[in-house]
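Quick bug: Efflux RND transporter periplasmic adaptor subunit output formatted oddly.
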Amino acid sequence: MRLRPIFPCSLFLTAITHFSPLSAALDAERAANTVILSETAVRNLGIETEIAMEATFESTVFALGRLQEIPANKATLSTRIPGRILSVDVFAGDSVEEGQVIGLLESRQPGSPPPTIKLIAPRGGLITQSHIQPGQPVEASEELLTIVDRSAMWAVARIPEKDAARLAPGSEARLHIPAAGEQTLTARLTRFGVQADPENGTVDGIFRIANPAGLLRPGLRVEFSLITQVRENVLSIPRSAIQGPPENRHVFVKDFELAHAFLKAPVVVGQWNDQSAEIVSGLFPGDEVVTTGSYSLGFAGGGDGPSLKEALDAAHGHEHNEDGSEMTESDDEHDHEHEEGGDDHAAETTSHSPLLLIWALAGTVGTFLWVQSLLKRRQA
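Here's what came back:
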């Protein structure tokens, strides 16, 4: 059986890899992009992380709109009999129940005393307009009060025409009402408006939302994230994790072995929605990315914690180079000579590093040729 010179080849490849400029460059890049913080700094910056994972990703388009009262939930109180208002028990801003007596009307019909008519609320809700006060004369069919049930409201989005074509009744949207805090509501498109706005190139999209506490008011600004497409198994992370301009997007990934260490990692971003960003490349499922405090990390420099060398020394139990790379025997010798001979001798030994690389390669090639000759003799 013919023996193959596996050992010399592996030795040669090991030597090349060990002294490879690429390996050194990668170690230097890691050192330059690693931020190590103290535990106190992590707390002060409010660092929070989230694991990148493949999940359902919703493509969205943005639109603005306002809240409106539902026309069917309005009612007007009037009287068919002219007369004079004797009393009013409620005013604008008060809530009433259906059938509640809200005032008295003295009729102009003859009588001693003249007949009195009760004013009854036609429905429950909030009195939004009141046009009467005691002693005021009123005519038949005159509007006295307006009552609106605001337990549900319309959120009307002004949707660009090109985006409206991608929606249909039943399409889902996420709504944010700044005046109501950070809460996000979910609603479905009920219908489109009866006509488009030719001046702004939009069409109204009407969403019905619940308002049980009555805190929402007509006219409040609404921000819509209209869902146009849903895809499965998309690697995505929260929007807040993405930093940098469009040509240099990056995130900070928590180091898997070093405490309070974060590595700046470039990423390619695909689609965005109101909550997440699709990651095309640069991350793997399971990577833990910084979501809160990511912006601050960009200005933290190397951090206030231990250096990369010190952190790796503590984690691995042996010494590393300043850039975090593993130390070789020559590095150990250099460090020893540096300690004995001082800075001048260290500079001298550093200047010999190319010679060491040449000697290592020459020795490996020589060993390879020597073993090859031995194998040929045995075969002969």
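Actually, after a second look the formatting is fine. The chain is about 25% helix and 40% strand. Closing.
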